[in-house]
Design goal:
The chain is of the alpha/beta class. Helix content is 45%, strand content 14%. The protein has a single domain, classed as NAD(P)-binding Rossmann-like Domain (Rossmann fold, 3-Layer(aba) Sandwich), CATH 3.40.50.720. The protein starts with 14 loop residues before the first strand and ends with a helix.
Length: 274
């Protein structure tokens, strides 16, 4: 367990909100922050309450505190409530991690306007609203840290991820613009763009939704340079870096096993393309 130079946990005394933290990458970040002493607001949909309660229990077992708040980030009022709930329960807000995302598939022909609007509402509009609310609190504290979780698809995504890729690209510009403005208030804003991460959701998409069965993972591993998939705890480590390194703002970290955008070996395409 990494600690600050003074021997204390790296995030001791801090309060963090992590959206989409009932499972996957978000749960990994929430657990990591809890291990490092942060009091964490765990967030997800009401249908994901069981996963959220599990994340809360893990954080409590690590000796920290956690609060579970459920709701839909498509609702502006809920976004604002989430930030206020953190402040009302813990008395401050130091860290906001915009992790929640919708990754429904769709090409230019099959993406409905309703699907486009849903993806943008969760993946881009919600971070804007959450940041707007959080910045008000952080300005009063003269400091804070916002970490946006993007995607390697932000540069150009799979053909079936048109809306998702476009939203994540917008998030990247949002990150840099916001970082530039908020330096005057000592509020840092950075982004992590994960590559291919093994989560519950990814396994469901590949094994069930795409009909590949459990064999998909064996095939995928053959394309991974280090011999394994990235895991939520890997991305959590990157988030912890941004949370604890005060001089860094406006940075985007592409977190993948090979350079994003590099040519793909034709033999790998069967594993990579839906």
């Amino acid at each position: 367990m990494s600690q600050a130079n003074n021997g204390k946990l790296a995030l001791a005394g801090q309060v963090a909100v992590v959206t989409g933290s009932t499972q996957g990458i978000g749960a990994g970040i929430a657990r990591k922050f809890g291990e490092q002493g942060a009091r964490v607001v765990v967030h997800g949909l009401e249908s994901q309450r069981a996963g959220g309660e599990k994340t809360v229990q893990v954080i409590a077992a690590a000796g920290s505190q956690a609060l579970l708040v459920t709701g839909d980030l498509q609702d502006e009022a809920h976004c604002r409530h989430l930030i206020r709930a953190a402040f009302e329960h813990f008395g401050r807000l130091d860290l906001l991690v915009n992790n929640a995302g919708v990754t429904h598939r769709g090409t230019i022909e099959t993406t409905s306007t309703a699907l486009w609007d849903e993806i943008f509402a969760v993946d881009l509009r919600a971070p804007f609203i959450l940041c707007q609310e959080a910045v008000c609190l952080m300005k009063e504290q003269r400091g804070g840290c916002i970490i946006n979780i993007g995607s390697g698809n932000a540069y150009f995504g799979l053909k079936s991820l048109l809306a998702y890729s476009t939203a994540k690209a917008g998030l990247m510009v949002f990150t840099k613009n916001l970082a530039n403005y908020l330096t005057q208030y000592r509020i840092r804003v950075n982004q992590v763009n994960p590559g291919w991460v093994l989560t519950e959701g990814e396994n469901y998409v590949r094994a069930v939704a795409e009909g590949r069965g459990e064999a998909w993972l064996e095939m995928a591993l053959k394309t991974r340079p280090i011999g394994r998939m990235l895991l939520p705890e890997d991305i959590a480590g990157a988030a912890l870096f941004f949370a604890t390194h005060a001089p860094v703002s406006g940075s985007v970290l592409d977190f993948e096993q090979h350079p994003i955008g590099a040519p793909v070996d034709p033999e790998d395409l069967a594993a990579l393309i839906p």
